[in-house]
Design goal:
mainly alpha
Length: about 290
């Protein structure tokens, strides 16, 4: 059900706060602990397992394709070997336990049982009704999972659906822009809103030499200057990528309607800010250097 027309970028703003809460799971010590309890201890194996498990025991190529900006050699080090340690079903159950514990820690016991988080879950799930499975493998895989009964877990599930739906569309925009996975990371970091190179090298498997080579390719295209900053063309390309991502992701928020989007953004902002205030993210995660 829709109401007034959506304001420009309102869907993007809503997604950003939902994703901020969702992404806490990748840095939560509870995730590492629950995965270690089923035998998965390497940090990169944990990351690949929890995000890819909804797709089943897939091979490395599938994960590299769906994740886009990870070096394939790193993926192949852990996938499909991780599935011989624990099944995707066991990983999904472990992730659910970790999310339950981490949200209780970050938001507080009262918040996870509050009417507000139940309302947020209902709104986010309603938005997700309009998501499309077409050409969206990570969204489609998660859409086949059951919705948890507990409101805070239902909210997390809905944020996952909306995150992966937008993310799958974002990859199409990156492909249309002619950016490979590492070039996408370099340009995003250059905006000041992406991960620092330190975290990219640690989590994505790229080296400084590969980063420098990607930067040189971007300079040859006129997208980066000698200092590694985006040129006017680079800024315009990143804006074009985000605008195309918005277009590919408009249906969920149009379906929810302007009032619903505004309310979900308000609720989601409160939860995301509480999580950040509780130390959900490393201090050096975002930035240029």
């Amino acid at each position: 059900m829709t109401s007034a027309a959506l304001a420009p970028r309102s869907g993007r703003r809503c997604h950003n706060v939902l994703n901020s809460l969702h992404a806490t799971s990748y840095f939560a010590p509870e995730t590492d602990a629950e995965l270690a309890a089923i035998g998965i201890t390497h940090p990169r194996a944990v990351n690949f397992a929890v995000r890819a498990a909804a797709m089943g025991p897939v091979a490395a190529g599938v994960v590299t394709a769906a994740f886009y900006n990870y070096k394939h050699d790193l993926v192949a080090t852990h996938v499909p070997a991780v599935w011989s340690i624990a099944s995707p079903q066991a990983v999904l159950a472990a992730r659910a336990r970790a999310v339950d514990a981490s949200l209780r820690r970050l938001l507080g016991a009262e918040a996870v049982t509050s009417p507000e988080i139940a309302e947020a879950a209902e709104l986010a799930l309603r938005a997700a009704e309009a998501c499309s499975r077409s050409a969206r493998p990570l969204y489609a895989a998660h859409a086949d999972l059951p919705v948890p009964e507990e409101p805070h877990l239902a909210y997390f599930h809905a944020t996952t659906l909306l995150r992966e739906h937008r993310g799958d569309g974002h990859l199409a925009a990156l492909l249309a822009a002619g950016l490979d996975g590492l070039e996408a990371l370099v340009t995003h970091t250059a905006t000041g809103r992406g991960m620092t190179p330190k975290w990219i090298f640690t989590t994505r498997g790229w080296t400084q030499e590969e980063w420098d080579a990607a930067s040189d390719r971007l300079r040859d295209r006129g997208l980066l200057d000698e200092a590694g900053e985006l040129t006017e063309r680079g800024v315009a390309l990143r804006e074009e990528i985000e605008a195309m991502t918005d277009r590919l992701d408009r249906e969920p928020y149009e379906h929810l309607g302007a009032e619903g989007v505004a309310r979900l953004t308000e609720l989601g902002t409160g939860f995301a800010r509480a999580a950040v205030a509780a130390g959900a993210y490393p201090a050096d995660l975002i930035g240029k250097g």
